[in-house]
Design goal:
The chain starts with a helix and ends in a 5-residue tail after the last helix. By secondary structure, the chain is mainly α. Helix 8 crosses helix 11, helix 15 crosses helix 16 and helix 22 runs antiparallel to helix 23. The chain is built from 24 helices and no strands. The radius of gyration is 30 Å and the shape is elongated. Helices cover 81% and strands 0% of the residues.
């Protein structure tokens, strides 16, 4: 094999991988945020989850892209592991479509496809058509890359050293390990399978060897997900582990199947007797479908095994309990008065979590504790979950037969939920200010810090007192609540004025000054939301 053929082989692999990337990127851009929305909402049923995983992976031509997106959703709490397992299984089927496409011999038409895609991408003004053009261009690159690979590897079939290396892959375990390593190197099972197809077409690899390589490729495809999970929380890591467990169990089942019933491979070969590329593609697809059909009924068991290997920590257990509705569990077939009482208790609980989060964020800001910043983010996720869940339940309550007074109460409770959610948003802003101070090495004077601390303490008092008014519905306390809110307003106005004086005297850092005024504004707004909460039900 000459140096030119080696370069052609690497160039073909590079063009193929780049074509896959261009095609995937174009499809994502053409679909916009629809993929993310579909994935977020269409995972309540396991079968639908599998279908969604298949469809999304067919669109983006990458099971890794789908799995990484799933890790993100589980990491943020938008999806549970039970919901994620179906999408992961579906992605393993969807990724086989690439091999089915490349089994067609479109090499002669690849330059034309590439040209059409390039013209659309470079010269059309419409964004959607440009994205479609990039998909077509990537499709053309993919096949041009395959043509280059096939031409480069043809001489390998007469190279004694390479033949000896391939012949050493007679042990099924070695074949699977080679498939895992090769796919981990390429970061794509689709790409690895297509390259195996190219070697088989040139007579370098036998079909039975390719079968084990494809099984190993499925395990190797988990590598990008394991890497993506390194920066995720424990739930994100569990998602990657879940994917790995699924593919390891799948590999064990398939290896047992083809060794106990070798006629299965003969049946697959007979579907395309004279086309080894199609045989490999069919094997890839049939194995994936078979594995999902066998393992889907036991998916909850895989989830349990995942939790066994990476168990919940005490703080995770607490967070899991918080991120549930505790009172508004069953709103159907209960008296409106009981439903309203449940809603009131649930909203009060949400308010306590948001207020605790505000206090935690303030502590993080003044003491610069990184570990608390992540807790604030986690609490914000919980508040966001409760926001959506409670609003959904309140909408259900509106369909009940209620008096105008009770309907008005439901409406004002909806406003309270929004105010509580905004308080937690301001808590998140506060930890961002702390990060901004550190990243920009900005400095706030001791005098300014003391003033902010006074405003923060008064704000927390105001928020807690207003939540107490809402929870107890003791409206004789409203005067005190309004007095506290006025004190926050006055103090915020006074310290901002003091800060402007310091800036004029050049006794304060300008960057720190921006953080100071933003922080003071956020705290004052928290008090504004708090008084809205206290007064919300007072007129009913």
């Amino acid at each position: 094999m000459s140096i030119f053929e080696v370069f052609s082989l690497f160039g073909g692999v590079g063009l193929f991988l780049y074509g896959m990337t261009i095609m995937s990127s174009g499809l994502k851009n053409a679909c916009g945020d629809n993929l993310r929305v579909i994935l977020e909402h269409a995972t309540k049923n396991k079968v639908i989850s599998v279908i969604v995983g298949i469809a999304m992976t067919m669109l983006v031509q990458s099971s890794s892209a789908t799995d990484v997106m799933v890790i993100g959703f589980v990491n943020s709490g938008l999806m549970s592991l039970v919901q994620a397992v179906g999408v992961i299984m579906g992605a393993n089927i969807g990724t086989t479509i690439t091999a089915q496409i490349t089994a067609f011999n479109l090499g002669d038409y690849a330059p034309l496809i590439l040209f059409v895609g390039a013209v659309m991408y470079l010269f059309l003004k419409n964004n959607l058509l440009k994205h479609i053009g990039s998909v077509i261009m990537g499709f053309g690159m993919l096949f041009v890359g395959i043509v280059l690979m096939k031409g480069a590897i043809q001489p390998l079939s007469q190279t004694p050293g390479f033949i000896s290396l391939i012949s050493s892959l007679s042990n099924p375990a070695l074949m699977v390990i080679f498939g895992v390593a090769f796919t981990a190197l390429l970061q794509s099972s689709s790409s690895a399978t297509v390259i195996f197809q190219a070697f088989a077409v040139q007579g370098i690899l036998r079909y039975d060897v390719c079968v084990y390589l494809v099984i190993g490729a499925a395990i190797g495809s988990v590598t990008p997900n394991l890497l993506a999970s390194l920066t995720a929380n424990r739930n994100g890591k569990r998602t990657a582990l879940l994917n790995l467990l699924f593919n390891l169990i799948r590999a064990a089942i398939l290896i047992a199947l083809i060794n106990l019933f070798p006629q299965v491979l003969t049946m697959i070969q007979n579907l395309s007797p004279d086309n080894v590329a199609r045989q490999i593609a069919n094997t890839h697809t049939i194995f994936a479908i078979f594995a999902v059909l066998v393992m889907l009924p036991f998916s909850n068991g895989i989830v349990k095994l995942t939790y066994l290997l990476l168990p919940l920590k005490p703080d995770e257990q607490r967070k899991a309990e918080e991120k549930k509705l505790q009172y508004m569990i069953a709103t159907n077939n209960i008296p409106p008065a009981v439903a309203l009482s449940q809603a009131h208790r649930e909203i009060s609980r949400m308010g306590t979590i948001a207020c605790d989060n505000l206090e935690l964020a303030i502590d993080c800001f003044f003491n610069m504790k990184d570990e608390k910043a992540q807790l604030v983010e986690d609490n914000e996720d919980t508040v966001n979950f409760l926001d959506h869940a409670i609003i959904e339940k309140l909408v259900e309550l509106r369909s009940m037969e209620m008096s105008p007074k009770d309907l008005s109460r439901v409406y004002h409770m909806t406003l309270v939920v929004a105010d509580i959610e905004r308080i937690s948003d301001h808590a998140e802003n506060i930890i961002e200010y702390e990060q901004q101070l550190r990243s920009q090495r900005a400095v706030i004077s001791d005098e300014a810090i003391a003033e902010l601390k006074s405003l923060a303490e008064l704000t927390v008092r105001s928020v807690r007192f207003c939540l107490e008014v809402f929870t107890s519905e003791n409206y004789s306390l409203l005067d005190k609540a309004n007095e506290l809110e006025d004190q926050v307003d006055d103090l915020q106005e006074r310290i901002v004025g003091n800060h402007v004086t310091r800036l004029m005297n050049a006794s304060c850092d300008p960057l720190g000054g921006v953080v100071f005024t933003d922080m003071a504004s956020d705290l004052e707004r928290c008090s504004d939301h708090a008084i809205n909460i206290a007064e919300a039900l007072s007129e009913i």
